[in-house]
Amino acid sequence: YYSTSTPRREKAPLRPPTYYELFPATLTSGPPPDGPFTIDARELRKEFLKLQAQAHPDRHQGENKARAEGTSALINEAYKTLQNPLLRAQYLLSLRGINVAEDETARVEDPELLMQVLEMREDIEAAEEEADLAPMKEANDTKIEASVKVIEDAFKADDMMAAKEEAVKLRYWINVKESLDGWEKGKPVLLVH
Predict the structure, then answer these.
(1) Which entry of 102, 133, 165, 183 is 20 to 30 Å from 156 by CA?
(2) Separation CA 114–CA 107 (nearest Å)
(3) Do residues 82 and 88 touch, judged by C-beta distance below 8 A?
(4) Mean pLDDT for all residues in the chain
(5) CA 21/CA 28 separation, integer angstroms
(6) Residue 132 gets which letter from DSSP?
């Protein structure tokens, strides 16, 4: 018995779209190194709102409603991730098989950085009023900006190890920022790594 039909090709399994592919108008060049690490937050938000208006589950019926719920959740997660430099760096690294978001062994071996973080923690705890935090916030924001720049340069150079190392450092500065933002007089400061 011979078949005259052509053999069927196996279809490649569908992979979910990357977060960058969900925002084609804003992220036209895709993820680094082809596209920039820094994202225009305004444009991203505009595209996010447009996509959510199209995908909102209330605009769909039956089976399409369930699909719209999944699409809407994916768009929300992508937006949350892409608008935050630390989450974006962790996501980009995960696309390359490097997981720093959940890797508890991804710690900094830089004693100077660790001392700076401990000193910031002590200074935050010693603050008597919110005004005492202003210079600390400014200094920490400068550290965050510098760290983001190092990450941007690393992704541009396609240097994943440098990006990973700096993403771990950025995580420390973001934790300091969260401690500064959540400050209450007399409340102990817990810097979670």
Answers:
(1) 102
(2) 10
(3) yes
(4) 87
(5) 8
(6) G
Q: CA 69, CA 9: separation in Å to the nearest integer?
A: 32
| Amino acid type, 180 | L
**Residue 82: CB atoms within 10 Å:** 23
pLDDT digits (tens, 9 = 90+) for 137-156: 999 999 999 999 999 999 99
Q: At what angle do helices 62-83 and 85-95 cross, to 10 degrees?
A: 110
DSSP of 10-70: PPPPPPPPPHHHH-TTT-TT-STTTS-SS--HHHHHHHHHHHHHHH-GGG--HHHHHHHHH
How far does the chain reach from its first CA to its final CA, in angstroms? 66
- Write down the pTM of the prediction: 0.82
**pLDDT, tens digit, 9 for 90 and up, residues 182-193:** 888 777 666 655
Cα separation of 95 and 162, whole Å?
A: 16
Q: Among residues 76, 79, 77, 59, which one has the least CA distance to residue 68?
A: 59
| Three-state DSSP class for residue 73 | helix
Closest CA to 146 of 164, 169, 126: 169
Nearest CA-CA partner of 78 in 32, 33, 24: 24
Nearest CA-CA partner of 140 in 89, 177, 85, 193: 177
